[in-house]
# Entry
Amino acid sequence: MNMYDLIRKKRDGGILSKEEIRYIVMGYTGGAIPDYQMASFLMAVYFQGMNPQETVDLTLAMADSGDRLDLSDIKGIKVDKHSTGGVGDKTSLILGPMLAALGIPVAKMSGRGLGHTGGTIDKLESIEGFSTDLTREQFVQNVNRIGLAIAGQTSNLAPADKKIYALRDVTATVDNPSLIAASIMSKKLASDADVIVLDVKTGSGAFMQTIEEAEQLAETMVSIGRMAGKKTYAVITDMNEPLGEMVGNALEVQEAVDILRNRGDIRLREVAITLASYMVMGAGRASGPEEARKLLEGTLADGSALDKFAEFVAAQGGNPRWIYEPEHFPQAKLVEPVYPEKNGYLSACRNREVGMVSLILGGGRETKESRIDPTVGIRLCRHLGDAVQVDEPFAYLYANDDQKAAEAKKRLLAAYDISAAPVECQPVIRKVIL
Ligand code: URA
# Structure
């Protein structure tokens, strides 16, 4: 077998065998196959696609490329969720504490963000003292004791994905459904949850821009999860605008706390509760989504989810007072209002651009080495479909630099369209794949 022949086979529309796919994944991860051959193979996959069997074989080869976590010493049915990524997505910070408050263990491996916004770990690290650097023993102990732990992904969990994703990121080969499905599901299969709930984003801020593409990706991932013996569900959610009001690291933690206090943005609350309700069902604690929803809403109403979040923060070295008194979070120096340029209705949002605004302000990473500024970001006071007026800000920018704030303001205004007539908007939950 050699890589040249396999690239040519895929380039010409051939179907690769399980052995051929393993040869490529193991060869690239181990360094025997160079970047230029792998990049060319990924581009061939991008244009020719992979059939369902090839996608499963790619996922399993990637999951087997490193260690597989063994979480069998965690009591109970372990649940996990993964989002395909979007702007302002802080649902993990909300659903983890809700589930833990119901006694459902959440053992979550998370990543840092590269690109327009920070990842879950970057957000949590805006809390004084918080660390995701847990040993395996601490991770298991915390889940058994309080029901929730979030650790940084170890470098040997699906290392093939780490290497392949870095190459896809710079060769315009990220947005292919088979490659995304294999990337996400290889990490999920290697991290040993019993129930996997996938949040597949669709719209202008997502990899999958149309609902049809999102459905195809969701169905592919659900069938891979089930083939591997995991209870797997997917919820397709709207990403045509940021989720919630806040974009930025400390700002997003504060918004999650607001939801845990049983108030806050309705669309964000809806996505968190819907995703969590399939995790509750998967754990066998409710027979349908309505029953699960009632249980989850109870944890917001009685404060048990908020207390659980504070307990989790303390267990990972953070200061739990910040959760009850969010005024302790460090603040940006400048808070700049952004006024719309005309009266009308917010009719479209180029959501990736909103993510770029956060990056310009310092809330994301341009390179792996960049340091994130936890205080900066955006507060959006209006959603798509809302009326706006020139004398009322539709957003505020949180910045520490005048020049960056000025550029961010221009880009944020250019990211939105305003129409004279009202527009109809998508519901935030588009479809559930059971
Ligand atoms: N998230 C991932 O983990 N991988 C992808 O390929 C896309 C989104």
